[in-house]
Amino acid sequence: MDALTDLAKMLKDNENPKPISMTTGIVISPPPSAQIRLNETVILYNEQLVFAAHVLDEYEREIELEGELKFTDNNCGTISNAAGQGTVETLNVDTTFEAKKVKSTTKDTLKEGDEVILLPTADEQLYFVVGKAVRFE
Fold it and tell me: What pTM did the predictor assign?
């Protein structure tokens, strides 16, 4: 009867798989040779980690700019020319520019001590580093 109870319990456990949930970890060593502390006993290494590109140094993103640049200011300083010096009392600039594609490159990356948001796979053998965690206390 005990074996039958154990079998029934195992079948019941399979019906209710453990839900996958996000967690956090602490960067011990930043990429490219990453180590992230998951808890007091588990440290994750590169082969167990997949990083979102935007958390890495030198990540490049293409952006498109368009719009207008306008400003008006009083007392903008002085100007020198062949006739001497004078004061710029007003300066009006009105520039419209067309859409332009440019690239933006990040210079910050994960550092030792940063807290990161981790999403494990179902078997918890692989963890996705989806971003840097920020807490407001």
Answer: 0.60
Buried residues in 7-23 as b, exposed as e (16+ CB within 10 A): eeeeeeeeeeeeeeeee
Report the CATH fold assignment for 16-59+106-137: OB fold (Dihydrolipoamide Acetyltransferase, E2P) (2.40.50)
Phi and psi at residue 23, in whole multiples of 5°? -145, -175
CA nearest 110: which of 84, 83, 133, 86? 133
pLDDT in tens, 66-110: 666 555 555 455 555 556 666 555 555 556 666 677 787 877 789
Tens-digit pLDDT profile for residues 57-71 = 877 878 777 666 555
